[in-house]
């Protein structure tokens, strides 16, 4: 009977180490030197690099990559369990080599790159010697790739890229940018002539690509293959966001429970007030549902593929946004005035909930995916009545007892009487 919710003891040991490491090493670094883990400043790097080395020594570096793609091959389920810890600490994904947007870009490179492309970009990205960005969304609309216009024109041994992209996270500091064009996915050096970074927004950049010339071997995967590569990239990214969201909502829940037991109002702790209990009970159930959905999805990916799991991944994407919104709001509310400040993580967490419903595809689009895929498993009912229409089902079922009903009029009358009573609601 293979239906097991336990974690292998050897991996649990790793998780325990990760939890302790995050608490004693990463959290203090985040509090005193925020941003050091992803800084290029040599002094900041000197603080973070030894931590990254400890992760590598432990065999936990770049865990999201399968063995054949150059990673340790732990799979998505173990990654989900690990992310339940990492997602609580701001720098942890960088210190463990699993930070977006590099992870998705590395997945694309690992899956579609030539040996030369991997040597040039994948291994330096894995070692965080370089950083990357992903340019897909365009100012005129992000939810519908058929509206994208950025295009590459072949010119002898080069491609010339023209277009405009919007909300390219960390685009301004990227060494390489993966640019989705209408006719392919291209790797563009961040400092290539013609890459124009607009002043706003500052973290997620608005970029113009003006006659940007890249060598022919900067096309990643097949010509016209950008949508397939993008799906590969985003599928992984979405489930990783959901995994880290589980960590966030668990943090909110811990804060909610601690606070409920610590404050008094009207003669009792607020934990003894039923409306606070309801908030705790609802949050507990919602977090458990999200966690199981995420773990089941991760397990499905491990046992089939990202493609096979796409309906579940889409469901994870909008469910994690919803649970984040609900639970972080309740925790913030129970924290009272303190919850509205930025002196705890709750205000930022709640503010991030709308973002979660937009990044990597808006909720509506994922809901459409789920509904469409789920509906493929159904048929319209053939006649006037739905297949669960009880009188029709009963008529069908009576055929099974036809001989008995014909032979015993009392029993037939009893059955008729019972059917009428049922229809009246008895
Ligand atoms: C924090 C963050 C980081 C991001 N990083 C990157 C990045 O690195 N690279 C990148 O390329 N992009 C990035 N994005 C952009 C992101 O992919 C887009 O924001 C997203 O695809 C939605 O596009 P849009 O913002 O143009 O919204 P729109 O497409 O304009 O949608 C706006 C609203 O219209 C409605 N809507 C749209 N389509 C439908 C539909 N089919 N059915 C029903 N309603 C619909 C929804 O209410 C939706 O919220 C990032 C976004 C965020 C928030």
Brief sketch in words of this structure:
This protein is of the alpha+beta class. Helix content is 53%, strand content 13%.
Notes on the structure:
The chain has 426 residues and is of the alpha+beta class. The protein has 14 helices and ten strands. The protein has helices spanning 9-32, 42-57, 76-86, 92-95, 102-112, 115-126, 226-262, 274-303, 310-334, 346-356, 363-375, 390-400, 402-407, 409-424, and strands spanning 132-135, 151-155, 158-169, 176-181, 184-189, 195-197, 204-215, 219-220, 264-265, 268-269. Strands 1-4-5-8 form a four-stranded mixed sheet. Strands 2-3-7-6 form a four-stranded antiparallel sheet, with no helix packed on it. Strands 9-10 form a two-stranded antiparallel ribbon. α7 (226-262) runs parallel beside α9 (310-334). The chain starts with 8 loop residues before the first helix and ends with a helix. Flavin-adenine dinucleotide (FAD) is lined by residues 101, 134-137, 141-143, 167-169, 204, 355, 358-362, 364-365.
């Amino acid at each position: 009977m293979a239906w097991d919710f336990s974690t292998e003891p050897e991996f649990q040991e790793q998780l325990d180490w990760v939890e302790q490491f995050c608490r004693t090493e990463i959290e203090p670094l985040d509090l005193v030197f925020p941003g050091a883990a992803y800084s290029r400043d040599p002094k900041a790097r000197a603080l973070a690099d030894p931590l990254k080395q400890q992760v590598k020594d432990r065999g936990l570096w770049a865990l999201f990559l399968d063995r054949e793609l150059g990673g340790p091959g732990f799979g998505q389920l173990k990654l989900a369990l690990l992310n339940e810890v990492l997602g609580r600490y701001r720098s942890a994904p960088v210190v463990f080599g699993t930070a977006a947007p590099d992870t998705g870009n590395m997945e694309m490179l690992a899956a579609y790159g030539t040996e030369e492309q991997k040597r040039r970009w994948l291994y330096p990205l894995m070692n965080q010697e370089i950083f990357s960005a992903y340019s897909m969304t365009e100012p005129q609309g992000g939810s519908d790739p058929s509206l994208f216009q950025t295009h590459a024109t072949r010119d002898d041994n080069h491609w010339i890229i023209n277009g405009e992209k919007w909300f390219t996270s960390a685009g301004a500091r990227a060494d390489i940018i993966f640019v989705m064009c209408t006719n392919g996915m291209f790797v563009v050096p961040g400092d290539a002539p013609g890459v124009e970074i607009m002043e706003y927004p500052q973290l997620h950049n608005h970029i113009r690509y003006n006659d940007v010339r890249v060598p022919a071997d900067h096309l990643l995967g097949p010509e016209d293959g950008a949508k397939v590569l993008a799906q590969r990239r985003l599928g992984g990214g979405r489930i990783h966001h959901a995994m880290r969201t589980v960590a966030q909502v668990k943090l909110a829940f811990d804060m909610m429970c601690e606070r409920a037991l610590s404050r008094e109002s009207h003669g009792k702790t607020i934990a003894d007030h039923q409306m606070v209990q309801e908030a705790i009970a609802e949050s507990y159930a919602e977090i458990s549902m999200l966690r199981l959905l995420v773990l089941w999805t991760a397990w499905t990916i491990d046992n089939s593929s990202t493609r096979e799991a796409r309906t579940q991944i889409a469901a994870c994407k909008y469910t994690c946004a919803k649970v984040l919104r609900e639970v972080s709001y309740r925790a913030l509310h129970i924290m009272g005035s303190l919850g509205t400040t930025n002196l705890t993580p709750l205000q930022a967490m709640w503010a991030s909930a709308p973002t979660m419903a937009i990044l990597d595809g808006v909720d509506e689009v994922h809901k459409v995916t789920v509904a469409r895929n789920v509906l493929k498993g159904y048929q319209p009912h053939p006649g006037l009545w739905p297949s669960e229409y009880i009188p029709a089902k009963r008529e069908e079922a009576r055929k099974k007892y036809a001989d008995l009903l014909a032979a015993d009029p009392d029993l037939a009358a009893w059955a008729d009487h019972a059917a009428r009573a049922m229809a009246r609601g008895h």
